[in-house]
Amino acid sequence: MKTQIAPKHPAYTFVKGNVYYFSRAIPKDLKNYYSRPRVIQSLRTTSRRHAVHSSRLLSVRLEDYWHDLRLRNTEPPCAHLLTREHLQGSSTVITLTQALELYLSVKGVGRADMFFRTARRNIDYVVDCLADRPLDMYKTSDAAQLRQWLLEKGLSISSVQRTFGVVRAVTNFAIAELGLGIQNNFIGIYLPTIHLGEKRRPIPTDKLIKLQKQCLAMDDDIRWLVALISDTGMRLAEAAGLLVEDINLQSPAPYINLRPHPHRPLKTLASTRHIPLTGLSLWAAKRVCLNRSSGYCFSRYNTQDKTSSNSASAAINKWLKSVVGSSSVIHSLRHSIRYRLREVEAPSEMIDQIGGWSLKSVGQNYGDGYKLKHMTEWMEKISLPLSC
Q: Who contacts 28 (Cβ-Cβ below 8 Å, separation ≥6)?
């Protein structure tokens, strides 16, 4: 009988609670720079493949930094010819996180909380991958490394493009505001583009019917959330952060009063809207109200401070792909609503109003936009042949 040998962990890693950690001893000649004998950092992944890539990147970055530390203790040749600032070997330029705070303090005036969270999240990606450095210490090779790290992390091409857009904007703003004579090395780096064939497409009707039948059969809170989105076109965070009081089933035309909450702000001003409940979304809303355990429609994804739409997305997308195919994600249902309404020749302004795509907020009680009963009539036209 052969003895099975446990698979060896990637170099400089160990596993704790199924999560990979990086661990590497500090070289003897550099120990005076550190408060501990080892560098230990979570790689924030349970995937061995991602851990291999992340540990290699972190190890290379450490070796580069250690090389720089050793050079600091080396007497440069012809030192008398160097300018004072280069002889000191340190940068006087603000760091990336300092540039972010400057950017938010000026550009963030009057902006929604989503603006701040998006900016911080994308800058956090850079810090996690490349560390928080003075702006003039990022090289084009670092930008390329960031691109690969984001793609390896599983971000979509559009998400990678958005991250680079934020980093470029923050860096450019600091350069302009402070009159820095430096180059933005995050500009000009190659980023993959989304080809026409790769754009999200609506889920075909037969697969939508299959999906909704599965929701009816499984009849749990995750499936209620999917069903709600499938016939309203809400964004995942919008639906996951609903309160029970946002659902109005007593109205002649039942609807959702979508509005911002402290735990879940909305993406745009137009996102505040009334959405008709028809088809399977009406069934899902009734199930939610009947089985509520708190003031939240979906308690597992909410705390007093935050709606965890990312954790909802991971679980739902995994199940969704198993039912309708690997090319579909929860956001595909939002695209499908637009497509289905176009197929029945609904007015484009009404489509925008239902989906919150308008440039300004419109609602039935505000004197402009379409009335709720008219939106309901159009939404009923796209109900699939299993409505409850």
A: none
Judging by beta carbons within 10 Å of its beta carbon (0-12, 13-18, 19+), is residue 55 exposed, middle or buried? buried
First CA to last CA across the chain, in angstroms?
59
What single-letter amino acid sits at 51?
A: A
Domain 96-190 in CATH: superfamily? Tyrosine recombinase, N-terminal domain (1.10.150.130)
Half-sphere exposure of 119 (CA within 13 A, CB side): 22
Q: Where are the alpha helices (DSSP H) in 270-371?
A: 279-290, 309-324, 332-343, 348-355
Percentage of the chain modeled with pLDDT above 90: 47
Smallest CA-to-CA distance from 327 within 223, 207, 226 is with 207
Q: 61-93 pLDDT, tens per residue?
A: 888 888 877 766 555 565 445 554 444 445 688
Homologous superfamily of 205-381 in CATH?
Intergrase catalytic core (1.10.443.10)
**Domain boundaries of the chain, sorted by first residue:** 1-73, 96-190, 205-381
The closest alpha carbon to 111, from 234, 262, 265, 259, belongs to: 265
* Rounded distance between C-alpha atoms, residue 254 and residue 232, angstroms: 12
Q: Which residues are 261's β-sheet partners?
A: 264
